Amino acid sequence: MKKKIRVVAAIIENDKQDIFCALRSQAMSLPNMWEFPGGKVEQDEDIFSALQREIQEEFNCLIATDSVIFTETTHDYDSFTINLIAIKAKLIDQDPVLTEHAQYVWLQRENLLSLNWAPADIPIVEQLINEKNRH
Ligand SMILES: Nc1nc2c([nH]c(=O)n2[C@H]2C[C@H](O)[C@@H](COP(=O)(O)OP(=O)(O)OP(=O)(O)O)O2)c(=O)[nH]1
After folding, report:
1. Ligand 1 within 6 A of 121 CB?
2. Are 114 and 105 contacting, i.e. CB atoms less than 8 angstroms apart?
3. Domains along the chain?
4. Ligand 1: residue whose CA is nearest its atom 29
5. Can you tell me whether residue 120 is helix, strand or coil?
6. Residue range 58-84, pLDDT digits in tens
7. What's the predicted TM-score (pTM) here?
8. Looking at the predicted structure, is the pLDDT value of residue 92 above 60?
């Protein structure tokens, strides 16, 4: 059976309703693909603490997370299956600093599909775009 991993990802939105998108570097798995930053949930760790820890490690900044899951998807890659849990968040104070990723951009929802997203993220991107259309 394929390995199953549980990953949390932050949908960070600023005051202009731009969404934070991060580009995985050459050195990372799924290189040169865009993602909502985050990482694997460790054993005995809750998803919200895992997300705060990952953003601190990857961008040197603190986030405040929603207390509910925005959406959750499962995707089959060739070598593993991912359970991807997306949670909305806001930056607290500091600007993000790149420590692992190649780049980041803030994009309006309608421009999100211009990026080359990790395949598991596509349903999340679509849900974000549809969410905006409802208002
Ligand atoms: N963080 C994140 N990972 C994603 C997303 N979409 C997606 O397919 N992935 C994949 C890429 C990786 O294979 C895996 C997450 O692993 P990672 O390498 O970022 O997490 P980590 O920091 O805990 O990993 P590691 O240090 O143990 O290698 O999930 C996403 O939106 N955010």
Report:
1. yes
2. no
3. 3-133 (3.90.79.10)
4. 7
5. helix
6. 999 999 999 999 999 999 999 999 999
7. 0.95
8. yes
